[in-house]
Amino acid sequence: MKTPTLNYTMETFWDSIGTGEYFSEFGGTYFGLKKYIQTKFDAVCKIYGINKTEVLVKAKIYRTKRSMEAHIYDMKQEIAELKEKMKNASEKKKEKFQKQINELSNTINNIIITIKNLKYT
Fold it and tell me: How far is the C-alpha of 97 from the C-alpha of 79, rounded, in Å?
């Protein structure tokens, strides 16, 4: 009897339910990583009386804030590059660069305000 070659990938384990030769060692059916995590999360919430919706909303807000902070970092890098270019630019180019810097700064300020206002209600 030929032993099947197992080629595990994240997709293999991420699916909710898998069947076939990859899962023969698990009795033919194997619940994927996503299902496993979901089941454990549901159990912990039930056992400890945790509000599952609240946890998920707070996690979403956290991920959103982190994404915005990364975007701010990128824009600050872009401002630094524009300031460097301004040093050797003509007056007309300096005005153009300054306009771009001002637009980026305004966007950063708007994102900071949005971050401060993001909260679970």
Answer: 9
